[in-house]
Q: What sequence folds into this?
């Protein structure tokens, strides 16, 4: 059985491993479409030190196409079965904005963390489902949908204030829906309805989001804010990913969602050492 999400401790910094079960994720080496591939990826992530496995069956890359609930569930179920076959204690999150996927996963595999790119905006039943099942919930900032978000990066008040103000309102709504405060994790949504420049502005003032009083998860790994300024591909963006991951930890992030577990685990260990020495 999958380790219950209630055992997820955010008192220490965590590495979340991305396991994409989609054929069109922006980083080609993260795509897994066969069960054996998924099993190997899960085993490797656990061996390298991931404390959370994040399974995604619906691509959220810019311009991503819509797929049915049944198709998403078939992918997610394969990933959950791969984690269960590993027979090791690890927290599992599901990257989905659909409450039906959450219900199916919980019914068959037990408690999971819900990682929702829409913070409940794309499914009217998501918040009540999470509250009813008492699950930990990652609420991410995004505008529109993956298909439309890149045209929605206008923030008259500035991106940092826009994101922080959104979460002040949204966390109140989450709690009114019955989600316990201690179950809420915030994700600023790097790359979602934000330009390269806005992503860096948000990273530079990440501490303002952390000051809202919730654990913060960041997903910077191999994203366009790294490879576009450098004129490289996502496959070449590991050094930049690690540099920005360090900056995210400095800003107060607790969970790093990444493609590359081992180098990120080393980075977190080194950052912890650094903090212990300089504080």
A:
């Amino acid at each position: 059985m999958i380790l219950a999400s209630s055992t997820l401790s955010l008192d220490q910094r965590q590495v979340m491993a991305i396991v994409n079960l989609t054929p069109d994720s922006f980083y080609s080496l993260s795509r897994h479409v066969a069960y054996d591939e998924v099993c190997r990826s899960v085993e490797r992530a656990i061996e390298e030190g991931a404390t959370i496995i994040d399974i995604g069956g619906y691509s959220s890359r810019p311009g991503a196409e819509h797929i049915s609930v049944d198709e998403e569930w078939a992918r997610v179920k394969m990933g959950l079965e791969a984690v269960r076959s590993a027979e090791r204690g690890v927290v599992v999150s599901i990257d989905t904005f659909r409450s039906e996927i959450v219900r199916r996963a919980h019914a068959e595999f037990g408690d999971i963390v819900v990682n929702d790119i829409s913070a409940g905006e794309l499914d009217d039943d998501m918040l009540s489902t999470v509250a009813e099942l008492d699950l930990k919930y990652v609420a991410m900032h995004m505008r529109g949908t993956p298909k439309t978000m890149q045209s929605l990066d206008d923030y008259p008040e500035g991106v940092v204030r826009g994101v922080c103000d959104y979460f002040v309102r949204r966390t109140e709504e989450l709690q009114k829906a019955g989600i316990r405060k201690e179950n809420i994790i915030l994700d600023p949504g790097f790359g979602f309805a934000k330009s390269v420049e806005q992503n860096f502005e948000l990273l530079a003032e990440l501490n303002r989001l952390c000051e809202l009083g919730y654990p913060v998860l960041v997903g910077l790994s191999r994203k366009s804010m790294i490879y576009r300024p450098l004129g490289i591909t996502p496959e070449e963006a590991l050094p930049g990913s690690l540099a920005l991951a360090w900056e995210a930890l400095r800003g107060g992030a607790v969970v790093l969602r990444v493609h590359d577990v081992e180098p990120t685990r080393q980075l977190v260990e080194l950052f912890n050492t650094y903090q212990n020495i300089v504080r």
In short: The longest strand covers residues 14-20. The mean pLDDT is 90. The chain has ten helices and eight strands. The chain has one domain: 12-273.
